[in-house]
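Notes from the 1:1 (GR / supervisor)

We went over the backlog. Supervisor wanted to see one worked example end to end before approving the batch request, so GR pasted a single chain during the call. The sequence is below; no edits were made to it. Supervisor asked that the structure be written out right there so they could see what the output format looks like.
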Amino acid sequence: MSLLPWFRLILCCCFFSPLALLAQDSHLAEAAAPIPALDNYFKESLNTRDGLPHNTINAIAQTPDGYLWFGTWEGVARYNGREFKIYDRSPLTGLPDVGVRTFHLDRHQALWVAGSRGGLVKIKDGIWQAQPPLGVLINRVLLDSQDRLWLATEGKGLYRQNPDGSRIVLQQTDGLPSDQVHSLLEDQAGRIWIGTSDGLVFLDQQLQLQQPSAVELHRTPVFALTERENELLVGTERGLYSIATPTSAAETLLANVPVSALLQESRDLLWIGTVDRGLLRQRHGITEQLDIRQGLPNNRILALLQDNEKSLWVGTNGGVFRLRDAPFTTFTTEQGLAGNFIRTVLSHSDGCMYIGSSRGLNQYCKGQLKQLDLSAVSIGQSILSLAEGPDGSLWAGTYADGLIQLQQGQIVQHYHAGNLLPANEVRAILPLADGKIWVGTALGAAYIDNGTAQYFSREHGLPSPFIMALYQSADQRIFIGSGAGVAVLKPDGSLQRLNLQPFDDADYAFGFAEDTQAGILWMTTDRGLLAYDLANDQIRMIGRAQGMPFDKLFQLVLDQQGYFWISSNRGVLRLERQVALDVIAGRRGWVDIELYGESDGMASAQANGGSMGAAALYHDGSVWVATSMGVSRVQPERLQRFARITPPVVIEELAADGTDYAVKDGHQLAAGTNRIEIHYAGLGYVMSQRIQYRTLLEGFDLQWVNRGSSILAEYTNLPPGDYRFRVAAAYPGGDWSKNEAVLTFTVLPHLWQRGWFQLLLLAILAGSLILGIRWRLGSLQRSELRLRKLVAEQTAELQLLARQDALTGLANRRAFDEALQHEYQRAQRYHTTLCLALLDVDHFKRVNDQLSHAVGDEVLKRVAAVLKQQSRSIDLLARWGGEEFAILLPDTSLEDATEVCERLRHKVERLDLNDIAPDLHITISIGLTTNYKLDLSQLLLHADQALYQAKRDGRNLLVIAGQPNKNG
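Structure output shown during the call:
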């Protein structure tokens, strides 16, 4: 590859004057703005650490199936939103060299790949079709409307490959300004525009070479071309120009900027890649810039693509950079915040959001950020808490300067340790309707009334003097959250401490949120979510045992769509309100949680807590969260827009007993195939990790199987037959993809399982029988008995093989499902107890990866042997799949089932496996549930969730569904 042209271009650009950007609005865009400001896009980068083969991204494309493709100097990288698959020089690709310079997606939906040594490949329907190489670097490829293929080269001019495969070259000797061709475009009139290192020319409909009239486009390198309605945009070394016709004058859109790539998103929005100035965006006459100072990996832009979900992908010399819309938008000091460490937010009746940070107080109104100056009374201006008074005044609690009252931005009152407050660290504020105010500090609470103060601390009945939250319920009770629990001040003046010990010994009470419709006061604590019934003073808990992913929760906000948003140190949780009410009412035992973090637009998943208020609902319906890196905002209504997007789904891999097969219909898998694995992926890139999947294996599954976010379906010991695998994908809360990915295959029978063989065998036996009759009657009788016995044994063997796991000798999934259905119906009919346990060998993948699959298989057989030895005769054992086992315990109480499961767990833990591998030690995790008030699907779901909880709590545990983990 010749670097001289790029070196010359960069050297030339160093002497240009800096880019004169037009003045930009300093205020933030409103949430409803159709085009986010560059600051409001979620930015992320991918490079070699994420799986790319090289950090220089020369080309980007998206094929109709949804895959993203990246061209680098070390091959092609195909991306599915989770991982890259690399294609380099190999018989599969037919590329003569790994260096890829350009992609072209033609009108027939084929992807052309070209690059070093003139390599040229066409990819269609997953098939790589190599073309004869040119022997010189190909810079651009274009298939025109006449199916002529144009190849722009680095030093050998422009090649035209006709539909019959013949090639014609156009060079400088034929009138081309230079043999170095950088860009190609076919316009609406059928003209072929050619950008060279020495100017722009075009071929008319008669393929006559001509030069446009605009002198600005002569004698200058032309690197990028695109059309915008009826005009041609030309990116050159000297800037960006537009011409309406070949004979019209050029209009300068951007001067003295070396333009390397162009992407027209809409009539009024143009993305511009530059050689050394980063990424530019022009809209409505305003040019905005994004470079390495705002997170761009490198200022040299080589490729631009907008994908099907409207994300912008940028190829740079430092990897792939992406701008996308995300559920969350984060505001930091870059947008005008006083500081990034946000402790409190307040939605005010004046329509503004107030944001308190460790370095000051901001007011957000109508898309504008303004800092309020508190330096007159607060040197550090470190804000801990915010509240609104009944008169509309703003109260701000500080870290070291007490409590400040503001009216219309002006300081009107200041309380501190020398003036009514017990301490200057103010974490909670509760203004009352009658003008009085409660103030929570690090040394107790103060009740201020008309210039006098009454103090409350531990000696007055508070659990702790460290006050973090205050709340007044509709019945005038004051709830006080502290570092050691909750106290309630009743209207009669008595102080009651709530007993939180039964709820996993909850201690810190970080915040309160009242659900007036349900009559519940929700308390966020260091042991999960507590529901306080304001009518009967009863407390219910939603903690780890009910599905909370971790303990410490800071602030709950109820949005306008009926969902809870709960801040925490590990992200923001979203929980459906009705589900939470059902759990505390005992109508269900488990909550479904969505956890949002940095991949969803938050600059940091660490939300802050310990003061009022850590999160707030804004008047436009958005939820604001205080974090350690700015304030993050989510508009719940926008999540519905994400859910409406249905990601396409593809099947990526098929493997049987460790052998990979090409993904195509009709594979015939060998008789006795033990394990079949099918990998799939939803090709959505907005929330790739959140895509949900369901599968249906026709011929085996009776109904769809929800796979969650798992991208693998595994089947063991499928009986012989024809199968059709279907998979669908969806974003959380969205519709399943209508265009499912489908794969058909056949599991062949053994010779003795084939119908013709069995018929032949019967014929032979019948013939022998006839011959035997002729010899003597006694021989006929012996032959008949032998025949019946043989047929019975073979039939029994066939039935056994169809219902038994070949590796372990246990029942297989199919047999277990039938037994489960039967036992469940029997338990329902006779009102008996049925228990179900799911077992999983801990860290089994590590055994396979480090010691081999053969060792893994031997481990599974040993575990199965222990299960058979230690189980009771009435129990049904089965291999559930992979390293998972299932135990059905009919007519067994939960206590007896617990005893059986613990015995199994201990026996496996003490299992001596040194004869398999030295120092090999294994354990199992068990999830146990019972059929009490559960239907069949819930029985399986609860057992699986309990198993997942055992895994998450450290493994080698037994977890009973709906009960706290006493082993964790």
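Supervisor's comment: Confidence is low (pLDDT under 50) at residues 1-34.
Batch request approved.
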